[in-house]
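README: folding subset

This subset contains proteins for which both the sequence and a predicted structure token string are available. Records are stored as plain text. Below is the entry for Reverse transcriptase (117 residues), shown exactly as it appears on disk.
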Amino acid sequence: MSLKVAPRKTEAIYFHNGSRGVPPQTHVTVDDIPVQLGTCMKYLGLWLDGRWSLRDHFDRLVGKVEGVAAALSRLLPNIKGPDDRVRRLYANVVNSVALYGLGGRGGGHETHTRCTA
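--- output ---
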């Protein structure tokens, strides 16, 4: 069994801590196709950058969570408001969108420090 990849869909990133300056402008070769090193990439639902800071992930997540919350709010009644069961469902949907991809990293409830390489 061998690993098969789609070279045109392949992404690469250079992980670093910044102590040696910016990462080099280079590429890796997959099946004779050069793949440029990017500043961030999506992997298993998370946007990673070269410093493992998740800043790009959260920057992109804000718009997505706001969009889901706005779409759900348009479905809710605006007279007398929703009952407690609907509010709980609304909160759980928005919460699950916000925490998607963070499940194996401590449950999302602890304070996380920034990882350094």
